[in-house]
Structures are given as structure tokens and as C-alpha cells.
Amino acid sequence: MSFPKKFLWGGAVAANQCEGAYNEDGKGLCTQDVTPHGIVGPRTEEPTPDNMKLVGIDFYHRYKEDVKLFAEMGFKVFRTSIAWSRIFPNGDEETPNEKGLQFYDDLFDECHKYGIEPLVTISHYETPLHLAKTYDGWVNRKMIGFYERYVRTIFARYGKKVKYWLTFNEINSVLHEPFLSGGIYTEKDKLSQQDLYQAVHHELVASALATKIGHEMMPDAKIGCMILSMPTYPLTPCPDDVIKTMESVHKNDFFGDVHVRGYYPGYMKRYFRENNIEIKFEPGDSEILKNTVDFVSFSYYMSICETADPAHVKGKGNLMGGVPNPYLEASDWGWQIDPQGLRYVLNYYWDRYQKPLFIVENGLGAVDKLVEKDGVMTVEDDYRIDYLQKHLLQVEEAVEDGVDVMGYTSWGCIDLVSASTAELKKRYGYIYVDRNDDGTGTLNRYKKKSFYWYKDVIATNGESLHK
């Protein structure tokens, strides 16, 4: 077994979790700047000093050092996002911010200096705060126009530097975290299903419009959707559990189905009917949705179980719901670890869509301890190596199954601030960043043991996984 010869090995970050410089060079505030505790805590009205994302890992000023380290590992691709509020500080301006545009010019140039292809997420959980407060985020149809202006601006600027684009990060996560994902300012417990799914419609139209514009402006570019994958197993063979699982899966499949097929599936039309949800289509929406993606990308961290029997519900299965799987262990943050679930979801998406697939997030958040070994500071993160190795071997199995897998960018290839908890102690990277949750630290970078392991994986195109 082997990986494809042109397999795109690399790593992934998001602007809001690593850049810092939240108010420099004309950048406006985004939704992340008022969530000092991630999705686990309330938002604030203004940025507060305890928000770790305001500094991040100072990637904004240190990107050259970091890209050089990625190149040393042998990265073929580097996934990052563009901070919308660096380009349009409020989101609804007519004219972009030149200093923001220049930063990404410089970043992409630095990547190309080492032969690294940028993979760019257009909107990654960082809606301009002004759009959230003033328009209630994607609930408002005006967001499509603001997004279109932003998209046309960055496509025109970076069209010759970026081959791979993703329209929205984990677009289906808006069902679980509407403020984080969709910039929806209405509190989650007060948000109606009608408004939530109307916001979903606006995002799906915007995504398809971006795909259409991208194909027109950049004929050689590849534009994909990005989905939070959540393989879901029936807790028991009981048919009720199987149907409950199917209904749960449908809510996530809805997003991929529209992106790939170009229309609303029948199962969602039934859901809307039975829940008195009436999606307002404007003239032309159905035609816009027909602009389908070139590939399907997704994150994979965990699987969940579902059951129709409330008596079997004993605790929350994972970050986004479900019930615990009795056959799986969990990370320090309670995310159940299921390497075989990655092979399963790759086969599932391939069978469903017959589009190239790209794993753009996967990794283990863990507490790392910086130690000195042979006079060099490092982290002995064998637990991370074990996690990644088991998952990558399942990717190889999926390739052998006949799945077309474009590449793999592990999440948080350099330590960054967690989206879910806004902590730095929850580390994912191959590179340790000396910064602590109390804000102390030098921000120095240190190579972990996994740095050299991943370098070897890339150099051998996965053959070292079998050693």
C-alpha cells in the first residue's frame, strides 16, 4: 500500500488562532476577539486582556520563521485562512485595507519561496464583529453581498498565488455554534430554527457564488467546501437507533449534498415541512446553487454514537453531541479517539460524492511538557505520534479502498490557541510555542519529537508509517 505520488502533505492553522496583531495595520475586530473563553464561555462586548487570541502565537510578525520550519518538515501545502477583518475591517466597506492585503501577499510569497502551496480558507470562524452586531451575521441576506465583495477582492489579488480555496470552515458547525461559525449575534437559546436555517441558506448561496466567481476569475484554481465530519454509529442494532442515526447524519450531509449536487435534498425538505421552516429563496438562488465544488474537504477528530432510547444517554458523546461509544478511549478534553472512523468517513464521502477528498484537519490536543534533551529543548510527544500514525494508516487503507484522497494537513501544525476553549495548553503542533495561558512566555519555537517523525513521513511519502 502507498499514498499517491502527488499527495499533498502539510499542516493547517487559522488566522484568528495564530496571527495575533488583532488591532494592527488597520485590522478590525472579529467575532473571535470577543470570545475570551472560546465556545465554552460567554462573549464580551469588547476585547479583554484574558483573550489569548489577541496575541495568538504572534504569527503575524513571525511567519517567516514558522514557514521556514514548515519547509524543513517538507510541507507541500500549508492551510491557513485570511482574516476577513484585515481586508475589510468592518466587513461592509467599499474599499479594502491595503496593509491587510499586503500581509497575505507576503505570506504567500514566503510559502512559494520554499515550494509550499497555500490552501486558503476564505472564512474561518472570524466574521467581522461589525457584521455580527449590525446585521446579525448570516441571518441577514446582505451578508451575501459583503462576502461577494470580499471574495472578488482576494481572488483578484491572490489568484496567481493560490491554487486551492475553501469557502467556509466547517460550514455545518453553524447548527451547533451559530455565533462562532455564522457570526449570528442572537443568543443561541433565542435563535429560532427558521432564522438558523435561513442563515444556512445564505451561506450556501454565498459559497456557491464564490465557487462560480472563482471558476470565472481563476480557471486553474480548485475550490472546495469544508465540512466538520462526524461519523455516527448506532449505539445498538435496534432499528430505532439506526433511524435516529440516519436522521442525525442527514443534518450534516445536507451541507455536502448541496455543495456537490447543487440542490436541496428531499430529506431536508421533509425536515423543513415537519418543523414549520420555510426557506426563502430569492430569484436566481437555485441557479447559483448549481455551481458545485471541485473537491470536498473536511475535519476529522472524533466519531459519535446515537440512540433513540433516552435510558441509554449517559453523558455527552463528544464536542458536538451524540452519546459516548463504550469501545473508544478519549483525549484529555473528552474527545473520543477513533482512527478507523477516518477510513470509514473517507469511504462514506467517496461513495456519496465521487469527488476528490482532502483531510484538512486532524490531530490530538494534549498537554505537552517542554524538557531538555541533549542540550536542546523539546517535547517527547510519543502520544501524538501514536495518534497521528494510527490515523494516517487508516488514510492509507482508504486509498487502497480506491478513495481519491488529495492530501492531509494536520491541525495546529504549530501550537496555537484552541478555538473551543481559547487555551494554549491544549496543544496540537509539531512545534512548541513558549506561551502559557496566563500570557507569559518568550514565544520561542521548539521542535517536538513529532516534528522529526512527520518530516520522515513526508520524505518517504508515508512509507515510514510501517516502521
Automatic annotation (TrEMBL):
Q: Which UniProt keywords apply?
A: Glycosidase, Hydrolase
Q: Which gene encodes it?
A: bglH
The highest taxon in the source lineage is Bacteria
Its BP terms in the Gene Ontology are: carbohydrate catabolic process
Q: What is this protein called?
A: Aryl-phospho-beta-D-glucosidase BglH
Species the sequence originates in: Blautia luti
Keyword Hydrolase included in the entry's annotation: yes
Q: Which PROSITE patterns match?
A: GLYCOSYL_HYDROL_F1_1, GLYCOSYL_HYDROL_F1_2
Active site positions, chain numbering: 361 (nucleophile)
UniProt record similarity statement: Belongs to the glycosyl hydrolase 1 family.
Q: Name one GO molecular function term.
A: 6-phospho-beta-glucosidase activity
Name the Enzyme Commission number(s) assigned to this protein.
Answer: 3.2.1.86
What the entry lists under Pfam families is as follows: Glyco_hydro_1
What SUPFAM superfamilies does UniProt report for this protein, alphabetically?
A: (Trans)glycosidases
Asked if the keyword Oxidoreductase belongs to this entry, the reply reads: no
Question: Per its UniProt entry, what is the enzyme's top EC class, as one word?
Answer: hydrolase
Q: Which GO terms describe its cellular component?
A: cytosol
